[in-house]
Design goal:
CATH topology of the largest domain: Alpha-Beta Plaits
Structural class: alpha+beta
Shape: globular
Strand order of the largest sheet: 10-13-12-11-14-15
Helix content: 10-25%
CATH superfamily of the largest domain: Aminomethyltransferase beta-barrel domains
Number of helices: 5
CATH class of the largest domain: Alpha Beta
Largest sheet: 6 strands, antiparallel, barrel
Order of helices and strands: EEHEEEHEEEEHHEEEEHEE
Strand content: 25-35%
């Protein structure tokens, strides 16, 4: 990473999933196989609509409550905790699970933190340079600073890593359009999950025609949500997260139609020229005939 940082992520929050059936319960709902959590691994996954659109992204992290009870921490958007608890809870039926909204905080760092009672640390499973995320009481996590947050946001957007509803607009895009397959957030072998049929069909029939992609703008960025235009003035997508790059330009994620990207069209957001910067992990689907 370009500089040492420990950034607080106030836009992220944590649901607590407890009970003997916690792994099998969640595994039947989300896009990734969460059984590796039984061996201590964290996974990134999506909770989808039946039509396959992303409701929210989740880091699923094994851990223990303050009284030593085994649990799964579900890190997601802080302002969606009550909604997600309600949505997931509809599928509880006779499963021996409980879902609880917590006040636990989230941080991310590029260094290996010392073990600390009450704090759960895990490596971002999406990318080797994604850093270490921390879940714990607010007063037990690094306080962070505006500078460290800026360093993290620049790093995240250069890597092309989405985070929460600012990038993954709820129920507006499919899992593969948001890169969940390339970022190890979908398991096509694990069995049924909500939205599986559409997700699998898009994968095997190469039906992905839009993608969330990292971009660079040659000037100060217009606001998130600004339309991205091709060289004919036709809207082909919108900006999502943005941050100034420290050199007069802007790093961002943009949700774009793939055809003009493949064609090499000159793109703009507002009046600012925009270039797609594909990281090594992005594998665009084969072009449709």
């Amino acid at each position: 990473m370009p500089a040492t940082f420990a950034a607080r992520l106030p836009h992220r929050g944590v649901l607590l999933l407890t009970g003997d059936d916690r792994v099998t319960f969640l595994n039947g709902l989300v896009s990734n196989d969460v059984s590796p959590t039984a061996d201590g691994a964290a996974v990134w996954t999506a909770f989808l609509t039946p039509q396959g659109k992303v409701i929210a992204d989740l880091f699923v992290v094994p851990g223990h409550t303050a009284d030593g009870t085994a649990c799964l921490f579900l890190e997601t958007d802080a302002d969606r905790l009550d909604d997600l608890r309600s949505r997931l809870g509809r599928f509880r039926l006779r499963a021996k699970v409980a879902l609880t909204v917590t006040d636990l905080a989230v941080a991310v760092t590029d260094s290996a933190p010392a073990a600390q009672t009450g704090v759960t640390a895990f490596t971002d499973p999406r990318h080797p340079l994604g850093g270490t995320r921390l879940i714990g009481p607010a007063d037990a996590l690094p306080p962070g600073s505006d500078t460290e947050t800026l360093i993290w946001q620049r790093h995240r957007l250069r890597l092309g890593l989405p985070e929460g509803s600012a990038d993954l607009a709820p129920e507006q895009g499919f899992a593969l359009e948001y890169g969940f397959d390339d970022l190890k957030g979908v398991d096509f072998r694990k069995g049924c999950f909500i939205g599986q049929e559409t997700t699998a069909r898009m994968k095997w029939k190469h039906l992905t025609r839009k993608r969330l992609l990292p971009v660079h703008l040659e000037g100060p960025s217009p606001a998130a949500g600004t339309p991205v235009l091709d060289n004919g003035g036709i809207e082909i997508g919108t900006l999502r997260s943005t941050v100034e790059d420290g050199q007069g330009g802007t790093l961002a994620l943009a949700f774009l139609k793939l055809a003009p990207v493949r064609a090499g069209s000159a793109l703009t957001a507002g009046t600012i020229p925009l270039t797609v910067t594909l990281p090594e992990w992005v594998k665009l689907p084969p072009e449709q005939a």
